[in-house]
Design a protein that fits this description.
elongated, single chain, mainly alpha, three-stranded mixed sheet
């Protein structure tokens, strides 16, 4: 009987019992994701946010004061665009640059930037797992879009002709980056059920959605505005080119004599810095602008000024009016 009992109970001790999942050592999702050497933040969230907001606000305000001193005529909208790109340059080059250079040690570090990243990672744990997509897109952001945003800020402060071209490139880059960021996370959740964000309202809707939403709204607005400005400029230049071409055809290359101007004694006054064959109204500054445009066949920068030229036959001569305004 003892043999039978031994046979019946043989191996019972070795039967594997169901093992419970280990207690999570961190608060990030998906549950069980591997985050080596994780250490909980020591600073409270209000202190972290105040430190980030204060530092960023000081940098942007200082840059705005410098821009206003350098260009007192900078409009309020231009100053707002300048501050937006300064803030982007700081975040891309410093905050995101820290992640790219220290992504392997962020989870265990207690530096200010590391703790900020660990707090934000509650909405996207990929920042603590050295995710290849995050490393790739953040590296492009740091080394390309950060300097581009700085160039945008400088061009805006100087009212440079290139500001709209640089602005369009930066806005397209931001929109594309935000689209990829949202799409990759949501596609993974749709096809696999894995979410990298905690389900609480503050982490998903405030951190994940709210903190990234400005980089979808503001670039879209700036992109539309710059596209409209460039379109208006090119339309005006095309109109100017067509008008000047029509003027040359009507004159057939002949010189239209200017009316003689006499002083109070009846002596003919010789006018200088005038175009031969063109009778012309406007200030001395506009005269120089028109002379330069005619000599260069209307090959000026579209982003710097818009021009419209009206031609009208008055007493057998052609009078041109040139109007310019800043874009």
């Amino acid at each position: 009987m003892s043999g039978w009992r031994s046979w019946l109970t043989y191996g019972i001790g070795e039967i594997a019992t169901p093992t419970l999942p280990p207690e999570p050592t961190h608060p990030y999702h998906p549950l069980g994701v591997d985050i080596p050497a994780y250490e909980e933040n020591v600073a409270p969230v209000p202190v972290l946010l105040a430190a980030l907001g204060g530092t960023l606000g000081f940098a942007v305000l200082s840059a705005a004061l410098v821009a206003r001193k350098y260009n007192p005529g900078l409009s309020a909208s231009g100053l707002a665009v300048f501050c937006w790109f300064v803030m982007n340059a700081c975040l891309h080059c410093v905050f995101e640059g820290y992640f790219v250079l220290n992504h392997e040690t962020v989870a265990s570090s207690q530096s200010l930037l590391a703790q900020l990243w660990k707090e934000y990672a509650l909405s996207d744990s990929r920042y603590l797992t050295s995710d290849f997509f995050m490393l790739s897109v953040e590296s492009i952001t740091v080394f390309f879009w950060g300097p581009l945003c700085l160039a945008n800020a400088i061009a805006t402060a100087r009212n440079s002709p290139s500001r709209h071209a640089l602005r369009i490139i930066a806005c397209v880059a931001h929109l594309y980056g935000v689209a990829l960021y949202y799409a990759t996370n949501q596609c993974e959740f749709y096809f696999t059920g894995r979410s990298h964000s905690r389900p609480e309202f503050i982490y998903f809707w405030v951190y994940y959605v709210g903190f990234n939403l400005p980089w979808a709204i503001v670039p879209a607005f700036l992109l539309l505005d710059s596209a409209k400005t460039v379109t208006r400029a090119m339309k005006a230049l095309d109109k100017a080119d067509a008008t000047l071409s029509s003027h040359r055809l009507r004159t057939n290359g002949d010189v239209v004599p200017e009316p003689k101007i006499r002083d109070e004694h009846g002596i003919v006054v010789q006018r200088r810095n005038r175009l031969p064959g063109v009778a012309y109204k406007g200030s001395a500054r506009l005269q120089k602008i028109l002379s330069w445009i005619l000599s260069s066949a209307v090959r000026t920068t579209a982003a710097e000024a818009t021009c419209s030229v009206l031609s009208d036959a008055i007493d057998g001569s052609s009078t041109l009016y040139l109007f310019t305004h800043e874009v």
